[in-house]
Each structure stands twice: as C-alpha cells, then as structure tokens.
Automatic annotation (TrEMBL):
It comes from the Bacteria. The lineage of its organism: Bacteria, Pseudomonadati, Pseudomonadota, Alphaproteobacteria, Rhodobacterales. Keywords: Transferase. This is Putative subunit of succinyl-CoA:benzylsuccinate CoA-transferase. GO terms for molecular function: transferase activity.
C-alpha cells in the first residue's frame, strides 16, 4: 500500500489532522490510546521489529484459526490507520533512523517498563535535546517511580493491586477476574486526556513536557465510591455478584436457547410492578421477594428461561423496565443499532481480508473520524516512511537494510 493511496501523510480531515506521532507503545494500553489519534487524522508511525514484534501479534484470535505474525485480530483492532515500520532497536545505530523521526514528531508515546527508553537513549531528557517541543507519553503498570516501578506485571496483576478483584465475583467464592487485562482498557482514557492537555499547553506556550501514567492508579479511580464509603463509615464493600445495593432486582437471567442471557434491573416499585405483570406471575414473584434475594432470583430465572432474550428485552423496554440482552460477538456484528450508527468499519487487510474494526464511540460534527486503512503488517510501511517522512532515497534505505537496522 502506498502512502499516497492511504492518505496517511497528508490527511486533511479529522480533529488531529497534522499531528505527528512516533508510537513505541505495545500490547493494549498504549495502542488503544494512540488508535484514537490515528483514527482521527493523526499520522501515527508504529515502531517495532521482526526480532521484537508487538507481543499481541502473537496472540489470537487469528483469522481462520491460522496463527501468523500478521493475522491477529487482537492486534488489528488496536492499530487501524497506523503506519508500521520495522527498526531493530537493539542495534546501537538505530538512533540514526529514530533521531530524524523524533525531530519530525509532535508526540512520542511508549508503554514499556521504566528504563527501556533510557537504555535506547530515548528518555525524555534525550528526546527534549533533539526536539525541545516534544510531548512524551509514558504509560506503565506501576508508574515511573516508586518501589514497584521496575517490577514486571500485566493487567491481571495491575487490576488486582488497584482493588478491582476484591469487587468482582460472588460473596461465597474467591474473586473472579474481569475479562482480559481490564486495567489496559481503563488507563488509555486517562492517558489520552492527559496527552491532550499537554498538547493544549504546548499550543499556548510552545513548551513540550513528559506525561507519565500509572495504569494501577488510573484503574483505582473506578473504586472512588467504595473508597469514600470506607472512609466515611468504615464499611468494606466487597463482592456482591450481580446484585446492586438499592435495587429491588439486579441480575443476569437465563433465556431460551444456548447461552442466552438478559440483564434486568428494577429500581422503583413502579418498575417492579410492571416487570411482574409482564412475566404474568405477580403473586409468586411477590412471595419470592419476601423470602429474600436468593429466592427472588431463582423465581425470576424460572420465569425468564422460556422467553426469547430479544423479545423479553423489547417487552421490558415497552414496560419501562431497564433490560439488555447479553450480546455475543456475533450479535454485535449484526446489531441494528450498531449498524445504524455505522460503528463497525470494514477495512481490507492484505493477509486477513476484509474485517470489521471498532470505530470511535463518539461523533465529531465538523471533523468526522475516518478509519483510513487496516492495521499494518509488520514492517509494511518501512520504505514508505523512510522516504516519505524522513527523506531518504532508495540507496540510503538499502544501506540501512544492509547494516541490519531495518527489519
């Protein structure tokens, strides 16, 4: 794919059109943040190598269940609209390529363990010496300082330390992890907000700065109510399963078919009355409610299991009762609401074919988002970036490659 056909170097649309990003992030937390930039017009150049590819390239799901460095759906969804180059950062001469990239960039983003960028001569002080107005975003599990800064860890450990695991699961069972590395999905929202604040500051003053984020600290923000309750009352809020304090009914209940479930909540007496009337066994449900939450949930499950999940959701909504089908991935891709809002973007990838990518959850009236092209194959745009951004000719690129710097 040529840079011209992708409109990647000179994007005129998008709220971040003209923003230039050197992206050293990997795994999930960093790439999720930089995807918001690339899908909104920024030119984002992702740096990795064949020796050390982004780790999630090695994790599934793989298209057609065939593993391959360019076949990970996990990687694909986090890297739409990004350019990919392969530079061997373990080679001490890699700075010859990276230095002009830093001179070009407005932002350098990285999500390594603290100390990795400094080992390469790319810590903030070194970057600032190359480009005084650079804004650097560093995201790590425990933050850049403190006693745990250099400890290894992934999202499962981060969310445990943030207090999430104490809240998820059932009271009579051990904690249950949320799906995946939950902290990796939380922290990018804070990272992006902080990065944009730094860019606004640079726009006003011309000054760059280093933005540093701890994924654990970002995830702890989710437990603000529990922390306040504990400080105010001394009560330790722990696992409640699907129940919610203050609601008459709050849970996930079975429906007709294999693995079909629906989430239903009744907060007010009016909602509860409407729901019991809908199910048609008001007296039995009232009796079960008097007997306690276990009996109530069992009675509701007995009443819902003969319903089609989508029909029950529609009936609940007509009755003014909050309800939502527990959608599967296949449901999401065919959902009428997502389709009406054009949430999924079909993008063609040379190795994986055309897949639907998650679009943004927001809409800009004047500067619409645009997923311009699919995730890059490893090193797909190396030559194009070397020539189109850094200004090297074919002979110079070939010389870099002969020296083992590219690849």
């Amino acid at each position: 794919m040529s840079l011209d056909s992708a409109s990647a170097l000179d994007c005129k649309t998008g709220i971040f059109a003209g923003l230039k990003v050197a992206d050293f992030t990997w795994a999930a937390a960093g790439p999720i943040a930089t995807k918001q930039l690339s899908d909104n017009g920024a030119t984002v150049v992702k740096i990795e190598s064949f020796k050390h590819p982004d780790s999630i390239r090695l994790g599934g799901p793989f298209i057609d269940d065939k593993p391959g460095i360019n076949r990970s759906g996990f990687f694909a969804d986090f890297h739409s609209s990004k350019l990919g180059i392969a530079v061997d950062m373990s080679n001490p001469d890699a700075i010859e390529i990276i230095r002009p990239l830093i001179e070009w960039a407005d932002v350098v983003a990285e999500s390594f363990r603290p100390g990795v960028m400094k080992k390469w001569g790319l810590d903030y002080e070194s970057l600032k010496a190359i480009n005084p107005s650079i804004v650097m975003l560093s995201s790590s599990l425990y933050g850049a300082d403190g006693p745990w800064a250099r400890h290894p860890g992934y999202g499962a450990q981060g969310q445990a330390l943030a207090g999430v695991h104490a809240m998820t699961g059932w009271p009579d069972r051990p904690p249950a992890m949320p799906k995946g590395a939950y902290s990796d999905s939380v922290s990018p929202r804070y990272a992006l907000s902080a990065l944009l604040a730094a860019l606004i500051h640079r726009e006003k003053t011309g000054e760059g700065q280093h933005v540093e984020l701890s994924q654990v600290e970002a995830t702890t923000q989710l437990l603000a109510p529990e922390l306040l309750i504990y400080q105010a009352t001394g009560e330790e809020i722990t696992r409640q399963g699907s129940r919610k304090a203050g609601s008459i009914l709050h849970g996930i209940f079975p429906c007709e078919g294999e693995e079909r479930w629906i989430a239903i909540e009744a907060v007010t007496e009016a909602q509860w009355t409407a729901f019991t009337a809908l199910l048609g066994d008001t007296d039995a449900l009232a009796t079960a409610r008097d007997q306690g939450p276990d009996a109530l949930e069992a009675a509701v499950a007995n009443a819902t299991e003969s319903w089609d999940a989508f029909a029950l959701m529609a009936a609940c909504r007509d009755a003014g009762v909050p309800a939502g089908v527990a959608n599967k991935a296949s449901d999401l891709l065919d959902d009428d609401v997502f389709a009406a809002r054009d949430h999924f973007w079909p993008l063609h990838h040379e190795e994986m074919g055309t897949l639907k990518y998650n679009g943004p959850a927001y809409r800009f009236e004047r500067t619409p988002s645009d997923l311009r092209f699919a995730s890059p194959r490893l090193g797909e745009h190396t030559d194009a970036v070397m020539s189109g951004i850094l200004g090297y000719d074919d002979a110079q690129i070939a010389a870099f490659r002969e020296r083992g710097l590219l690849g």
